[in-house]
Amino acid sequence: MATIYYDKDADLAQIKDRKIAVLGYGSQGHAHALNLKDSGMDVRVGLYEGSPSWEKAEAAGLRVVPTAQACAEADMIMVLIPDTKQAKVYKEAIEPNLKPGDTLMFGHGFNIRFGQIVPPEDVDVSMVAPKAPGHRVRELFVEGVGTPVLVAVYQDATGHAWPDVLAYAKAIGGTRAGALVTTFAEETETDLFGEQAVLCGGVSELVKAGFETLVNAGYQPEIAYFEVLHELKLIVDLFYRGGLTYMRYSVSDTAEHGDYHSGRKVINEQSRQAMKQILADIQSGAYAEEWIEENAQGRPNFNARRAEERSHPVEQVGRELRRMMPWLDPVEID
Questions:
Q1: For residues 119 and 163, is the Cβ–Cβ distance under 8 A?
Q2: If we measure between CA atoms, which residue out of 114, 163, 154, 107 comes closest to residue 132?
Q3: In sequence order, what DSSP letters do the residues of 290-305 get, joined into one string?
Q4: How far is CA 278 from CA 173, 218, 263, 270, in A?
Q5: Burial 127-149 (b: 16+ CB within 10 A, else e)
Q6: Quick count: other Cβ atoms within 10 Å of Cβ 262?
Q7: 291: CB partners within 8 A, 6+ apart
């Protein structure tokens, strides 16, 4: 059974006198910084000179300083910049300013798990990883509830890394919903697998395949869009509230029968073997090496695939249909 901590298990006084630096002000960075501030913590945001987020953070009432200065001031550093930029920032701004007894924190374990960052032995290394996009971490905190978080300690140099990480989790609202204990390896490997096999890669390819199958069979693209993409949110919302059983309870008997009749024809043994290979590549570090090298080369394959995917017919049809439904609050990415 997983170990889960709640508000009663954490004490904000543990880090009340700490100087906290939040590096980055993107999806997670803005939520952590604002929630910490509202919890009474001494927080500053570290950004590079000229960052477009600088004015946003200051407008929100936060103190913003250059990244190296933030690290020099702080004894608790939370790294919330993109995975692919962390190693460089660590070498240039974080490592030179680490002092014995400091706490180095992460919102995702990638760079520790795959050895891109190797901290000195005299600092604590821990993780607080919310299981929601940053805007929801902030919204739920303001509403008085919270987002579940994963917490881990990779290195406990001071002997109080665990009370500190739980206090931090409480300060951003995580222990209101529950802080589930994990490891850097488990968080990283399961997160990458979920993204690739199900949440992003798996779902995206399933939607496109369904859309193409219907359109190639002569059905209207608009009808295909509604059937395989638009309605997906309705089903996922049912999953979210009550699992697979609640979804099956909520749909028609014909839909439930279709689930049992055809689901395993689509996600079959070949699919499961592919998932096992995806996981094996993540565990071995092969995927990380490929992604790190892709970035080192300037992302040629990534950028080409991004352009290709944005021009897919399901995106073109969907863009036009969403413009007809302003109540969805549609978003367009240039």
A1: no
A2: 107
A3: HHHHHHHTT-HHHHHH
A4: 33, 34, 21, 12
A5: bbbbebebeebbebbeeeebbbb
A6: 10
A7: 84
Which three-class secondary structure state does DSSP give residue 217?
coil
**Residue 196 to residues 201, 205, 286, Cα–Cα distance (Å):** 5, 10, 14
80-97 pLDDT per residue, tens = 999 999 999 999 999 999
The token pair at 50 is 């000229």
- Per the CB < 8 A criterion, the answer to whether 202 and 192 are in contact is no
**Catalytically annotated residues:** 108
Residue 21 and residue 70 in contact, taking contact as beta carbons nearer than 8 Å:
yes
| pTM, entire model | 0.93
Q: Does residue 1 surpass a pLDDT of 90?
A: no
Cα 38 versus chain centre, distance = 22
**Alpha carbons within 13 A on the beta-carbon side of 330:** 12
How many angstroms separate the CA atoms of 126 and 137, rounded? 19
Would you call 245 exposed, middle or buried from its count of C-beta atoms within 10 A (0-12, 13-18, 19+)? exposed
**Strand 124-130 to 42-47 pairing:** unpaired
What single-letter amino acid sits at 70?
Answer: A
CA distance 85 to 2: 32
Question: Mean pLDDT over residues 195-219, rounded?
Answer: 98
Q: From CA 34, how far away is CA 39, in angstroms rounded? A: 9
Position 246 pLDDT exceeds 90: yes
Tell me the per-residue pLDDT of 314-325, one tens digit each, with 9 for 90 and over: 999 999 999 999
Look up residue 68 and give its two tokens: 């190296």
